Fold this sequence. Notes:
By secondary structure, the chain is α+β, with helices and mostly antiparallel strands. Helix content is 26%, strand content 33%. The protein folds into 2 domains: 11-54; 58-179, Efflux pump adaptor protein, beta barrel domain (Elongation Factor Tu (Ef-tu), domain 3), CATH 2.40.30.170. The protein has helices at residues 11-22, 32-54, 127-134, 161-164, 188-191, and strands at residues 56-67, 81-89, 101-106, 112-116, 119-125, 148-160, 168-179. It has a 7-stranded antiparallel beta sheet. Strand 3 and strand 4 (112-116) form a beta hairpin. The longest helix has 23 residues, at 32-54.
Amino acid sequence: MAVSKRNIFRGKALQHYAASRQKEVLPRLISPPVFVFLWLLLALLLVASLAAWLTRVPTYVVTTGVVLDQGIIQGQQANDQATAIVFVPVSHALQVYIGQPILLQIGATGTQLHYKVERVVPGILSPNEARRRYGLDNATSPTITGPSIVLTISLGPAFPAQQYAGSPVSAQLQIGSQRVLSLLPGLGQWIGG
């Protein structure tokens, strides 16, 4: 008896089996929702990085001064309005100009008030020269530690000279801005301002 060489598998099934063996099948490590979530997280990170690169924040110099008790300041006429002088370190002299906004706090517990720089006194003063020129003693000017430039700010009628003379002044003067990303430790030295 002759044995026929018939295949027990259909031709289509063999082709499908051979095709599936040739295909590379990657293991399924993460589900599709997690994959989409990770792409969204990466997009948000890129948007936040771009915003941190483009956004600039102001930089301030914090300094001190005093409300003057003298009536005449370098040729100005005496009036009842108080005038504050603020001592800015020489390292920031190029960033100071007339009309620049300045935030002042008169006294230790006073509210912060917005003013504009009225005058930049020409020249650089040593601590001793500043004390001598403006009649300050060591008690009212202990924070003048190095060469400074002097800014004058008229406080207006709300601050009578007799009442506020000799009061200490804390000031914040905006001298520029820098990128938010440069505030991160380690990145600031590479990115710059």
